[in-house]
Design goal:
By secondary structure, this protein is of the alpha/beta class. It is 53% helix and 12% strand. The chain is built from 15 helices and 7 strands. The protein has a 5-stranded mixed β-sheet. Strands 6-7 form a two-stranded antiparallel ribbon. Strand 6 and strand 7 form a beta hairpin. It starts with a helix and ends with a helix.
Length: 308
Amino acid sequence: MSDAAFRRGRSGLGRGLNALLGDVAQDERDASGDGPARGAVRMIPVSAIAPHPGQPRRHFDEAALEELAASIAERGIIQPIIVRPHGHDYQIVAGERRWRAAQRARLHEVPVVVRDYTDSETLQIALLENIQRQDLNAIEEAQAYQRLLDEFGHTQEVLAKAVHKSRSHVANLLRLLDLPSEIQARVVEGALTMGHARAILGAADPMALADQVVAQGLSVRQTEKLAAEVKRGATGEDDKRRRSASGGMQAGATGSADIEALERQLADLLGLNVHIVFSADGRGSITLDYSTLEQLDMVCQRLSGERI
């Protein structure tokens, strides 16, 4: 994103991650010049830094953390950790994964940029950093959204604009918090995806349905079909239910339901409304609806693999 985009909007939840971290980018440029830097990169002892208790991300993949620690041990930390003053020490705003890996790599000091962010900005940065890097599972993301709504009084519409997602995506995620804690835990562990969880939401016995989905390894589409069948009260024989749940597209079924399911899965992944036009000859088109340039920038980053 351009420097002009970095400088748009200086307050409020509506500032995107690039805008908030644009201050840090400017600090690094200032530090490389002749003038005094107002927030230059500095080295701080690892022991003087503590994680933020409200960090949205709770689950850290051990294998990925070990891989990052090995890279840091060999090359050091390339991107500084962003911290804010906290008592006599510092609190992490963005970069907890790097801080954890640095400890494993037995580093005594790490590069940081110190910024005076508010509680709201701190939570927003942590949330957006993880979302744009696709590091949060659906439950962690939903819990972070709920915190922003509860603690700072934001509406879903304002929140959706701030995180560059559609309002429907935010609303669908928040609904996942109505699921039993056992099912939420399975989403965190990766046994169920957001699509699975959404399909299970309306079930009379969500735990039984979740157990069946995990045991049979059902896809999201198969889970939706099974949930709809159970909701209609069509119990039938066990062999009939198994064929319906695991047999894929049935003879005579239209492709529209499968296209709609694919649209929902892509919408869950991108956080934007997705429309698919499919023709009989196998050709078609995919349309992504975005309402801000920040949302477009996010899609471009996802497609290109660019990391902010």
